User: Fold these one by one.
Assistant:
Number 1:
Amino acid sequence: MLELRHISKSFVNGTEQVHALNDISLSIQTNEFVAFMGSSGSGKSTLMNIMGCLDAPNGGQYLLDGQDVAKLDDDTLSSIRNKHIGFIFQTFHLLPKLTALENVKLPLRYTDVSSEEADKRAHALLDKVGLSHRKSHRPNEMSGGQRQRVAIARALINNPTVVLADEPTGNLDSKTSVEIMALLTDLHKQGQTIVMVTHEDDIAAHAQRIVMMRDGKVLDLDYKV
């Protein structure tokens, strides 16, 4: 499903050339649950941005469902992000003035899905993540765990090929983190492909496979915590 071939990424920071990624090659199969681990500056978030078509590599090739992403124009990339990739962020990225239901439906604004179908999907997903009773609440009226559940429902609204989760429990307490990881594990059991970035061993342990990174390189494609 996702194939990275000799991916490199560098940028200039002041007078310094920073090599964020160095010759990364790996594959992620359909219905895998993969966690990327590494310290700050290891390159895991940069790699996540490339896999999510939010950034482009300087070198190498990224294939998403067989498509060479580097050869696609901005409009096509935007369409791929919306149709094939679901994003879950550490800071939730919910719009504060919208209700839970409206936040979940948001990605469908840019599709030809009807209003009735959007409502149906959003209600079903809020029920799936245990928040149907909070559908009319805004983010500031919900706990961190509830906000992350809304974000997960939003990530699933377009039936994505892959869900990319960047530190999905980073802003949550231990009990809530366990609940969110149980939800992601259940989604994986239902067939969802999940790629997650984390620096916590206990969170990474929920994945089938752990990729360990350091200094922009892959140290281990099947690391055991």
Number 2:
Amino acid sequence: MGQAKIIAIFNQSGGVGKTSLTHNLGYHLALRKRKVLLVDMDPQASLTVFLGLEPSDLEETIYQSLMAAEPLPIHSGLYQQSLDLVPANINLSGAELELVVADMRELRLVDALESVRENYDFILIDCPPSLGILSYISLVAASHVLVPIQTEFKALKGTELLLQTISRVKSRANRQLQISGFVPTMYDARTAQASACVESIRQSLSKIAPIFPTVPRAVAFVDASSQQLPLALYQRTHGAIQVLKEIAKLLDKK
């Protein structure tokens, strides 16, 4: 198994399908017989909810591991697969402020993950939709970053700031950080604008990192999440499942 590939799923913009992508890719990597840990670093705790936990009921979350160096509270064997979760709740919003003056803040998540890294093939970090310190320490802890980009032109324009942030982390705090690629999300094949945006993403970003298969816009993603299931368990014949399988396969090969 060796040391896990740690992938931060990161975009400073909200509403790009980041958490849904983390949820579903984690499940499909587990289906490929990989041992996977999902880490919820978003104070909104959507990933925690998607995976069937109630954040307000949790006494131990990633917060305690970051701020008190407590062992990661790992919830194991989700969906009867080799898929585990480190949950979050609203307490993590306090860490955003507390970490500003904390000793060795850049290494808090690095240290928390180090003790379990050899137990996994993949660790996927669901970053918050911001350029704040929680996203920063997630990028410092990661070996790779995967960037979901909504297929709208305004989303593409925001990538410059995102890439500057990744470059800043790579220049000093984490020189080994690599961009695994970009995932166009929420694609609506019925609109010419979405098709043009995908082409723009390919033209402008393919020189930086690979462009993964495009994830379609589908109400089924929302419905599956509300039922606390990955899409493949909620609607087994949905066309997007093949796309998710292909992305997981490509990540597994890299």
Number 3:
Amino acid sequence: MTASVTSSGTSPVGNPRSRVVLASLIGTSIEFYDFYVYATAAVLVFPALFFPNADPTTSLLSSFAAFGAAFVARPVGSVLFGHFGDRIGRKRALVATLLTMGIATVLIGLLPTALTPGWEFFAPALLVLLRFCQGLGLGGEWSGAALLATENAPKGKRAIYGTFPQLGAPIGFILANGVFLILATTMSAEDFAAWGWRIPFIASAVLVIVGIYVRFKLLETPAFQKVIDQGEVLKAPVARVFKTSWWPLIQGTFIMLATYVLFYLMTTFTLTYGTTASSVETAQAAAEAAGKPFDAAGFVPGLGYLRNAFLIMLIVGVVFFGIFTLVSGPLAERFGRRKHLIWTTVGIFVFGLLFVPLFGGGFVGVMALLIVGFSLMGLTFGPMAAVLPELFPTNVRYTGSAISYNVSSILGAAVAPFIAVALWKAAGGSTVLVGVYLSAMAVLTLIALLVTKETKDVAYENNVS
């Protein structure tokens, strides 16, 4: 059954707005903090600590492969936690997702590295396993937080409320990279590589405890409470969503595609490209100073920025991510989700074609690339917490939105850093193919948006499959 047009003008009752904002925002901030801590470490320290017996490019690609394990896990997490979210409620599922990812993150901080005698094989294997558990948690977290916000939203404000959990992405990024930046500037490189990198992972335990406390105080969302009261809770929401909502699953997956590719190019790839030496001579001198082997044949040049300097540049860019995430909600309410996202995706397409001139424009060009890219990221990511859930009826909404969101993560985010590094290497250090890759993914998202109807006025209550 497709969603019907809202006829009631009453606002949902239950959780007060302040509690909705805090619970949806703090949960996704913690989840994304945990996720970005790993993403940053995957570039900065994990290649040397967990994949040391290879040339630098192969070690980096191995680290990115472990990074991608979480994206394989995310659809599994979406099915698992989506089932419970549509069976026993949003609140309980959200507590479980936070615990899953939080425990895995702390354990990564306690893990021996491959440099520890006897752990050469087990350390990388356990890293991948814990990364998989991180993905399980995040696979169910986002959709639950999105429903917590939007199913508590008054009429005409779902897209605005939906920006609350979306703000967790820039906040988590700033927290994670801010912690790494502080550690890198307050301790030696040797101490950071030996034990300092563990601090952000272990410290997440404090954030998880706070998040769980806040979520235990929640009431069930009004929309799902009506499903319970009317006896419409499904025994197998996963089977029902594939039977009755298979087309929205496909639409939602490709609507998210450009967003995922853009984000992981703007974070993981730009950090790699920005901090790679700009010449063979510089790279060789740095390797010799660190006492590491250097393979000139496998070297591809980057921008040559110092790691800390580029992290600061990234954080400045992410501030614009947060600003335009907030801006996107009112725009999506005024003009409609579909029109807003179509024009934003056109902007992403054009942006991909500007990679080479912007990356080649010195400091000003790189900052312009980061600011424009993250602004587009806010504009496209902000409305997604409203758009994807609106594609599905209430009793399969958690499962449907979670599956779309996380299958898209495999097609987009899981492979984006790996593909980008491969294209960068294939082009001999140029980013032209990386930009073309982003533009091509934007075309696929545009097609998905063009074949999807506007969802702004769909009902959120009394709407079941």
Number 4:
Amino acid sequence: MKKTWFITGTSTGLGRLLTEKLLARGDTVAATLRKHGSLDDLKAQYGDRLWIGLLDVTDTKQVHEVVNAAFADLGRIDVLVNNAGYGLFGAAEELSDTQIERQIATNLTGSIQLVRAALPYFRAQQGGRIVQISSEGGQTAYPGFSLYHATKWSIEGFIESIAQEVAAFGIDCLIMEPGPTETNFAVGLDLAQPLACYEDTSVGEVRRVFTSGDFSSGTFTIKSDLARTVDAMIAAADAEQPPLRLALGSSAYTSISQVLTERLRVLEQQKSLTLSADR
């Protein structure tokens, strides 16, 4: 059965390839991006099956306007994919207020408002699927990415909560958690002005990895193939009963498995003290 998808952040990387693959198999895509022109080639090839909307997800008024327009023009949207986002790097005290506000507005508030804008339509059509692009960074944490992790951990909590709120309306949710993948994440990284005192700390070590552009070894080794990652996302989003979370790639599997195992170990270790707080 052909589907209609609404996808944010489609000009490059994962969002662009996802759009390409869905159109190639015969689906319809409402694709949003911040600037004209990036999807002109696909529009020429697929015509009315590609609906394009200009959208800055940090503009809540525009979010609602674009979602309203997409449903009005297309009639029904089956899957909403919250993909727009980027990384912010720097020790917490290195970050500017503007950088912090923009990161939260894009990665967290923008996704929340898109879901809120789509929910009345999904309820009215008695069904819909919300696909939230998170990352392994939604369950793990690395030095220098405190605000990025804050947004990813937060959006995962939001999605896990609303999945319970809207299940009765035939709406379900899926959180995608890719590890390091062949995207433009590093190229689009917003870098804070470094403080010399962090040069010889874990933040400095990670900063040197990203400024060098060498991801051939270490924690941030790029192991995941972009095309295979997108194929796995589509397969999961097509499933009759998708999982709430899907880790993508061996790096994501390993890192998430390690942190969850350690978290459970610590919880069990503290069990007696934990239970002593009961009445």
